[in-house]
Amino acid sequence: MTSAPFASRHLGPRPSDQLAMLRRLGYDSLDDLMAAAVPQGIRGETELSLPPAASEAAATARLRALAAKNTPGIAMIGLGYHPTETPAVIRRNILEDPAWYTAYTPYQPEISQGRLEALLNFQTMVSDLTGLPTANASLLDEGTAAAEALTVIRRASRGKDLRPIAVDTRLAPQTLAVLRTRADAIGIELIEADLAGTEQVADTAGAVIAYPAADGAVTDPSDVIAASHEAGGLAVVVADPLALVALRSPGELGADIVVGSTQRFGVPMFYGGPHAAFMAVRDGLERQLPGRLVGVSVDAAGQPAYRLALQTREQHIRREKATSNICTAQVLLAVVAGMYAVYHGAEGLRSIALSVHQHAATLHDALNDAGIATLHGEFFDTVVVRVEGQADSIVAGARSEDIHLWRVDDDHVQVACSQVTTLEHLNRVLKAFGVEERRMLSGRTYLPEPLVRRDDILTHPVFTEHRSETQLLRYLRRLSDRDYALDRGMIPLGSCTMKLNATTEMEPISWPEFADLHPFVPAADAAGMIELVETLEEWLAEVTGYAAVSVQPNAGSQGELAGLLAIRSYHRSRGDEARDICLIPSSAHGTNAASAVMAGMRVVIVAASEAGEVDLDDLRATCERHGDQIAAIMVTYPSTHGVYEHGITELCEIVHEVGGQVYVDGANLNALLGHARPGEFGGDVSHLNLHKTFCIPHGGGGPGVGPVAVAEHLAAFLPTHPLHPDAGRRAATGAISAAPYGSAGILPIPYAYIAMMGAQGLTDATSVAVLSANYVAARLAEAFPVLYTGENGLVAHECILDVKSVAGPAGVTIDDVAKRLIDYGFHAPTMSFPVAGTLMVEPTESEDLAELDRFCNAMLAIRAEIDRVAAGEYADGDSPLAGAPHAARELLEWSHGYSVAEGLFPTGATQDKYWPPVGRIDQAYGDRNLMCSCPPPTAFAPLD
């Protein structure tokens, strides 16, 4: 085996360890193992055509050269994206800290208390600013958040109110574009109008209102909100959170739902993403809220503890009946935005908002004094200037001064001020307009007096106690110490690929040439980023065997939606309007069914065989029954059961024979890369999870990137964008996310990964991932049966362990096993998916043999504990399994029948032990007593 130097760092098991693992399985080499595991019929005949693997230094130099081709300048474009200052203490200790960016979604809340508290801060901040009681823990971007609001309006009426929804044409153009795409898919009629008036909402199911408008105008939305309510509809306000520091909250004005983006709260523009969007709702809409929601509950000792609330809304459980298809949100960026509010507090945010407004007011005054008309007399941060045919020359003049302005049309130029705007910047802008410079800010205000905010915000102590950097640094460290992330040990989650996120891959995202790019600067000023994106799209097409790729979808769920919309558009282009059925295997990930519904398709389930594979006989019968109505089948490969199904090519043939398309879910591409390409063995479209296979870190639940890859006949139906730098990609299918390239800011990560791994390195990574999964399966099979295997008794990159058949008779639950793993120093594998009472284990290629053995030894020790429970060696209900996880405070008053050593130190080691900050959390209590903002400090008073 030959691998580049970086690949040898990325792969955990050393060559000698690989040989030992192979011997355990009865194989002589990785090639022999893969030949036995991967069906011959799907194996690629040619090697991947990628550039030779680069060293870490060479890859960094290549990225530096690309960054040098970008000219961020000072962005004064606005349209929902603004320069901001990320406090260095937050950048270094969150955005660039693996304790934060390598964490997993907090489904095991006992070991996620730090990021859950940080998300609760974010929710509290959003709730305060919007004036609504419940906010979620982030959405993807403003455009998709507004689109989610459309579905909330529909769900709130239980789907009975099919009237159109009024949409404000004063929204940002990219938000309007996403709304159109999503509304068309699910059959919602939009009435687009300037909602400064009320007449357009008279007979609608709801209204989506801009506050402030994208062109800067601030108008009172109260009348439109009231008119919407009179019509029996819901009022959605799309708001700028920094403007809400200065303006009355939408909740106070009567809004039912508020959405927006927290980008300007310390999150770089990142050429369009990733950014944490938000949604807040009035009382009564909590269960319609999409995305994750952090709530407060209690642990086994009655102490307050955080966890995800109302999880039964999520697509994992409700599938096609879910509130949304969103699986990955923007947790890492939500944490940054929340901590930005913690860092500045209410007074700091007011100072920033006032400064922004004062700079805009000064610009307005200088232009008007010079006889140049501005469009609006009341605004927050944005001024639109009437220039009578001179827009191009003025924008060009400002660009020569390193300032980016927005050309609205021939006669209008838009200028937006931000946290970083200085008087010097204003004078450069005034120079472009031919106006004399100003020596000081005007001091005037142009906020409408009735809309000036007067209530207190951010009054919880968390926003007032961390004024010094020392205090904030220690707070961030305290929270990260409460969490378990990949920097502590293995996170063996099946289907989630929690593997190495190398530092060399991560470093470029903070470079200002990438981070400070506005997504709508001229293409020439983003040449390096565009080249990076186009190169990455070419590489992804090569490794998947497809003809074209779009990186616009900013999460796997959005990639699924984009792929299904491409299929739908393809059928429509051929006159096949009746094709609206999406076949979904019963074992599929919940987002598949939810995405199909969001694409306007009907879901028909295909059964699984006893071996866990798609039942091809049932598939044939279903295709015969529905024939010309079948649009597509969505199938995960390798299967969700962790097996290389030999019937995959036949499955593709069956669906193709009736005119359907084959969607190969790319969630498990980690088991194919370098060995098989879905575009070659029958797939028409796939989405890829760059936050899994290609090393973008999970970030505690986001950011993600979900590119969509398609065959040649679907290439014309990839996502488009009205402001795409390539004019040829501005029409047709529509926008999936708010920015042309989605979460472009984190694309240097997979670019660096592929560049440093090369074709052989990627192939070896797959081989070692499969080796590690089979090694774990072999070591644990006698203690916990492996439910599904393929030919030759092998699994793919993950295995499903049957815990229920072993633990159930002893009265031990799957939760007991998962929580007990915490005491052994592990994050639990995926629980009860896709089969109840199981653990799905994916060790990845990055874990070394010692860590694999440590996990296996822990699982074997837990099996021994289960046997002791079954033998009656513990008093009823008082076993280390039932008591897990054991928090440190239990030492103060040990109440168990087993020893402290057995409960707290099951491995015998006392050094480097991870201590869960809370005991087992009562999930049901938190749902019965819903609290989704920061609890008062008295909630954490010591128990009597």
TrEMBL record:
GO biological process assignments: glycine decarboxylation via glycine cleavage system
Keyword Oxidoreductase in record: yes
Modified residues (N6-(pyridoxal phosphate)lysine): 692
Top EC class for this record: oxidoreductase
A GO cellular component entry from the record: cytosol
InterPro entries linked: GcvP, GDC-P_C, GDC-P_N, GDC_P, PyrdxlP-dep_Trfase, PyrdxlP-dep_Trfase_major, PyrdxlP-dep_Trfase_small
Gene Ontology molecular function: any one: glycine binding
Gene3D superfamilies: Aspartate Aminotransferase, domain 1, Type I PLP-dependent aspartate aminotransferase-like (Major domain)
Catalysed reactions, as listed in the record: N(6)-[(R)-lipoyl]-L-lysyl-[glycine-cleavage complex H protein] + glycine + H(+) = N(6)-[(R)-S(8)-aminomethyldihydrolipoyl]-L-lysyl-[glycine-cleavage complex H protein] + CO2
Residue ranges of domain Glycine dehydrogenase C-terminal in the record: 765-886
Reported cofactor(s): pyridoxal 5'-phosphate
Keywords from the UniProt entry: Oxidoreductase, Pyridoxal phosphate
Residue ranges annotated for the Glycine cleavage system P-protein N-terminal domain, each copy included: 9-433, 464-719
EC number(s) per entry: 1.4.4.2
Domain of life per record: Bacteria
Annotated function: The glycine cleavage system catalyzes the degradation of glycine. The P protein binds the alpha-amino group of glycine through its pyridoxal phosphate cofactor; CO(2) is released and the remaining methylamine moiety is then transferred to the lipoamide cofactor of the H protein.
Family (UniProt): Belongs to the GcvP family.
Subunit annotation: The glycine cleavage system is composed of four proteins: P, T, L and H.
Protein name, UniProt field: Glycine dehydrogenase (decarboxylating)
Organism of origin: Aeromicrobium piscarium
